[in-house]
Amino acid sequence: MTLLRTLPFVGLGLVLIVLAHADEDNFGEDEFGGFFDDEEFVSIATGSKKLISKAPAVATLIRADEIKAMGYRTLSEALESVPGLHVSHSSQLYSPKIIIRGISSTFNPQTLVLVDGVPITSIVRGDRHAVWGDFPVNSIQRIEVIRGPGSALYGADAFSGIINIITKTADDIDNNQVGVSIGSYNTREAWYLSKYIDGDFKLSLTGEFITTDGFDALIDTDIQSSIDALELAPPASYAPGNASLGYKGIDLRFDVSYLDFDLKVGFQDRDNVGHGQGSAGALDPVGRFNSEKFLANLTYNLTKTNNWVSDINLSYYRSNQKVEKDLLLFPPGAFFGAFPEGLIGNPEWFERTSVFKSESAYTGFNKNKIALGFGYKVEDLYKVKEQKNFDAFLNPLGELVDVTDSNEVFIPESDRSSFFIYVQDEIQIAPDWELTAGIRYDDYSDFGSTTNPRLALVWSTSLKLNTKFLYGRAFRAPAFAETLVVNNPIALGNPNLSPETIDTFEVAFDYAQSNALKYHLNIYQFKVEDFINFVPDDGAPTATAQNIGQLKGHGFESEINYRANDDFRFSLNLSKQTTTDELVKHDLGGAPDYQVYLSSMWNFYPDSSLNLYSNYVGKRARSSLDNRDDLDSYINTGITYHLKNLGPFNLSFSIKNLFDSDIREPSEGPNNTSPQVAFPNDLPQYGRSYYLSIYGEI
């Protein structure tokens, strides 16, 4: 049946091949000279620059000028424009889940996010930390996205896809800039971009600051509401009430380069972060978090000749989750009055990841470009703190007890190390055929070794058409929360877990009718083995993490990009995915079946532009244990007006959710660790909102 569903799209690809050859005679040498002038390059697919249409992967590039033109304020908003990718603000604290090709889970560890090539993964849960507050965009030069596996080059967690956030350097900043913004939900922002260049010495500094109350997410009922409905004690729930989504944020980035050295340093601070919808399914308007993230990335260009390039890279990433105000897992009066102050749990942790990496590329052979890399990584959960007023069986302790450095703490301090080596060869096997073959070996101190290959054959079918045949395998390393948790009344870790694996087969077509009109289509199929689920324990109320799941998925992604002239551009993409939990023969749930994204940019006057996007997110199926109806589709439309050259400044005005659609993302359904639905009416998102920005050069 899967093959039958994909036949129409394979047929469309064959039609593109025929059309490309039929029209090739009319595509003369003069046109060829400028045909690739507007083509974009990415480096995420092979580690070196490649035209997107010829890269051995399905890749998307989002540039800084596009981010500004469309009025995107966060990384999440920009990523929604990528075919087959959906950002669901439905994880803990409403933090973003970046879902690629329908692979969705509670903490979404299956998507790898990099900043300047360095992973920002939390070793505790495998995500980017719940206390994120999203990633602002003024320091971003470009975002490169791969849909599909990438472990053959990037190692762990490059599973369903990879996102590389490339920040601005001195070369990317024309002049020093400042900007301020005000908007709905008492949102205020300020930013600056600055640079200094003196010969080979280059320095850039960027800063972004935000304070916001967060949007009004009215939640009408929570898990405490269902307990209150028993009428065995006075009602305790804070519902109906708003999720707690306010925060203050600081982002500072520094880049300095001199000759063969480049040092990038980033610091993020999130302060007074609200508890979102609550960690345990009950609203908490009181609790507050803090989180700090520090990233240092030093690269030294060891060798650079006509045929040989060699780099050494050292990176250090430190992050934490801290509690500023006691977190109410359940409100005061919960459990029929057993907790008059509320069920309080304050988990904190501090982690760091250090990586040494050496990479080389050799092009001295006639038809080969060989890349070789190796490295060593240490991941260290070096401090864990916890205060709580309950024990492992949810019995009240009568007061808040500090269980730090005891066997009652929620997760023990631990570390792991890994060694990796990879090799990749780009082979010109014929004038119009290029084969990319690669393999990477990772050896971890806790779960053992894994080997992940890739093969990509790119056929320059004609001047207008490139056809790609792709295969890749990837793995996800078990997070510490899945292997080490021991003092939890519901979910327990398993130190014997194996990594999740995925095998993906794909065919893709990139067809350029002209510089003005380009098409893309890709069809994929994947299989996930050893998917980690929590399985109920016999004779106990707990569930333990096990490699028991198997997923199968298939779908397609298509794009049309049209540039009428320098003043008008239009793009449209459509994607469809089906992901099945093979254990129960049911949709995995949590991800949209169809997505459609339309955007246009119109410079209708020399100093004025009007840009629009409209995002259709299809219905979201429920998991096999969830009896609720599928979550309805929605359309989110945004519009941004730019007015430039108002003296030294420029102005932009944006409206988000223009038609005030009722946007909701799926709440967690029942599972093996929790039979109840905490938020049966799902998680409401932002309504119509307004933002005004003024920025200029100084």
Structure description:
- This protein has one domain (2-697): TonB-dependent receptor, beta-barrel domain (Maltoporin, Chain A), CATH 2.40.170.20.
- The chain is built from eight helices and 39 strands.
- The strands form six sheets. It has a 22-stranded antiparallel barrel. It has a five-stranded mixed sheet with strand order 3-8-9-6-7.
- A hairpin with a 2-residue loop joins β35 (634-646) and β36.
- Residues 1-22 form the signal peptide.
- It is a multi-pass membrane protein.
- Its main location: membrane.
- One of its GO terms (cellular component) is cell outer membrane.
Could you write a compact summary of the structure shown?
With 698 residues, the chain is mainly β. One of its GO terms (cellular component) is cell outer membrane.
